[in-house]
Amino acid sequence: MAVKVDHDLCTGCGLCTQICPEVFEMGDDGYSHVIRGADESLPCVDEAIEQCPVGAISR
Ligand code: SF4
Fold this sequence. Notes:
Layout: E1 4-5, H1 15-19, E2 24-26, E3 32-34, H2 43-51, E4 57-58
Antiparallel strand pairs: 1-4, 2-3
The structure holds iron/sulfur cluster.
């Protein structure tokens, strides 16, 4: 299952990039993006999903 960030919800707070910098990065558009080729099975992805204040991350 691919990890996705819903840019209609993401506020660009940056929290997921702090929790899981191996997988998420902030783009020039101000939204979080999944890093190409990142290991999406890392446990920190699940933490980012839980902690995102607007529920924008899913898998
Ligand atoms: S934690 Fe959620 S709202 Fe904040 S940057 Fe990540 S996806 Fe966007």
